[in-house]
Every structure is written in C-alpha cells, then in structure tokens.
Amino acid sequence: MISSVKHTPFSASTDFLPKKRFLTPTLKFSPLPIIQNSIFNNKFSSEKPLHISSTQNLTFSPKEQQKELKTQCNAYEADRSRPLDINIEVLDEQARFEAAQRLKIGIYFATWWALNVVFNIYNKKVLNAFPYPWLTSTLSLACGSLMMLVSWATRIAEAPKTDLEFWKSLFPVAVAHTIGHVAATVSMSKVAVSFTHIIKSGEPAFSVLVSRFLFGETLPMPVYMSLLPIIGGCALAAVTELNFNMIGFMGAMISNLAFVFRNIFSKKGMKGKSVGGMNYYACLSMMSLLILTPFAIAVEGPQMWAAGWQKAIAQIGPNFVWWVAAQSIFYHLYNQVSYMSLDQISPLTFSIGNTMKRISVIVSSIIIFHTPVQPVNALGAAIAILGTFIYSQAKQ
C-alpha cells in the first residue's frame, strides 16, 4: 500500500528541544561588539539560545600565543642591542660639558688678551726710556722664573715632577721661545707697537707654510687662498708705515717664525706629559733665561745697562722702576695664561687666537701712544685682520 504523507512546515522552537542543553551554555570572550536587540528592550531573551557564527577570533593557536608572548617580553634587558632612551641624557651631558669647555677657553682667551694689552703698554714705555731690548727681555724671563720658584716654595702651586727626557724635549721649545721673545722686543724698540703687531698678525701664514713644507700637512685650497689677504694686508701696512724701520720689520717677521715653531714644539712636548700648561711655561721661562743671559751680556753688556738705567731714572723718576716691574710681571702672566689655553687647543687655533688678540693691542696702542695712522695704513691692517678671520673659517 502506498500512502502519502503530508509535509507541514517545521517551526523550530525552544520548547521542542530539551531545555537541559541550554541551561548552562559555555561562553567564551569575543572581541565582537554586543549587538543590542531593540525588539526585546535591549535584553537578550533567555528563551532562545545564543548562536556564535564563527569561533575563529575566540581561540589562539599555540604558535600565535608563543609569538604574542615573545613580543611582550622583548625588553631591553633581554636584548641590549637596542638603543636606550637614556642616550638622550648622555648627549645632553656631553653638550653641557662641551659648552663648559668653550666657556673656559673663552675666559682664558679674554684674560690672555687683557694681560697682553697691559704688557705691551708698559713694555713700550720702558723701551722708549730704556732702549735695551736684550736686557728688557732677560728681566721679563727672570721675573717670571722668580715668581714660579716662590710659588713652588710656598706651595701656592704644586711643583712639577720632571725628568731628563722632559728637559730634553723642552730645549728646542726654549730656543724658539727665546728667539721669538727677543726679536719681538727688538721690533718694538724700533717701531710703533701697532706696526709690530700688524706684521705679527701674519703668524697664521707662517704656521701654514711650516706645517706644509716641514711636516707635510696638506690643507684645503680655501685655507691657502685665505693667506693672500693676510700677506697683502701686512705688505700694504708696511709700505705705508710712516715710521718704517727695517730692523723693526725683520724683528717682527723673525718673531712670527720662531713662535710658530714654539707653539708646535710645545704642543708635542706637552702631549703625554704630566706637566700642565702653567708649570710647563714656568720651566720654559727658566730654560730660556739660561739661554738668553749670556747672549744679552755679550750684545749689550753691564756698562751700557748702567748708563741707560741712570738716564731713565733721571728722566722718568721712580715710576720707571714700576714700569720695568709691571712689564716683567704682566709678560709672565699673559704667557702663562696662553699656555694654559694651548694645553687644550691645537697650535693653529692658538695662532688664530694670538692674531685676534692683536686687534685689541693695535687699537689700544694707537689710542694710548697717539700713533699717527694713514687711511691706507689702516686699510692694510684691516685687510690683514680680515684675512685672519677668513683663514679661521676656512680652517674650520
């Protein structure tokens, strides 16, 4: 028998299924947002089951869990190849240290220039009344040596620990220092202070030439080009100088060359030594004094000194003694400060600072001694100084 069955639509209802299966459904956290049901007043019906369409976002595979764990534990302590944010603080401290060093060198330079101006004023006064540059140079070195011996004896300054090798390396420096000191003093005794320092502003040119031809140091082309205004300005100032004197001119040129060698040898001699800049120059003064004294006696002699001293005292009075003492004391002080600067900078930077110092010396000497200056002469000095500035920029 064939019978037919009438199919009726089947309607799913929670009453058809056993309620036991849906009493305690196991729910997992899902990052999906909750969808509010507005039909049941924003509440889920407890009579219908919750259907989860996908479980892909609810579980994590072991590999993904391990990967997530590594990412969270990858701290700096486990991997020191990563940079630290603390490097920023280290750079800040380094910047502050460099700024403090620049300030320290700036103070050295300002003190050095001020002392040098005072020395040049008193030195020229002494030479005008007492034209014996060899004895004047000797007294300057003797005064500085005496000051440092007293400082060491009274423990105001700590005495340096030296050996035979130190004095051997100091000897060529002392020879160059002696020649440069006497040559500059001879130049000032013959010409105006401003003219001597205009010629001595060409010291960077000598420094570059010596570094190039004797030490094989090659510099960029702009550095060599910057020497043209220095040399041209010095030449123009020399040609237009009203009181030009060949001995004074040659003395300034020899002083330039000697002081370049002194600065280079000093830097090499101070490298790796425990003697600081102040004590280094004290030892240099003592050795230079020993070198210079016999030559000063041979060139001028005690008889000339005695006659010249009596004449100066008769013309100036007791103030002349103070002038001699002042020029000797300030000569030692300004050189001592300059060597404290040389202890921390290069010889070329030292030459640049030495040249910039001459601007203050030239201007102050013209004002104090009423030195007549022609416009062309002033132009030559300005060109030489401008060339020195260009040289310093090209060197940097």
Automatic annotation (TrEMBL):
Subcellular localization: Plastid, Chloroplast membrane
Principal cellular location given in the protein's record: plastid
Stored Pfam families: TPT
Keyword Repeat among record annotations: no
The keyword Chloroplast is assigned to this record: yes
Recorded GO MF terms: organophosphate ester transmembrane transporter activity; phosphoglycerate transmembrane transporter activity
Transmembrane segments: 105-122, 134-153, 221-240, 246-265, 277-297, 312-334
InterPro entries attached to this UniProt entry: EmrE-like, Sugar_P_trans_dom, Tpt_PEP_transl, TPT_transporter
Alphabetical keyword list: Chloroplast, Membrane, Plastid, Transit peptide, Transmembrane, Transmembrane helix, Transport
Domain Sugar phosphate transporter: 103-392
Membrane-topology descriptor: Multi-pass membrane protein
Protein name (database record): Sugar phosphate transporter domain-containing protein
Organism: Citrus clementina
Lineage: Eukaryota, Viridiplantae, Streptophyta, Embryophyta, Tracheophyta
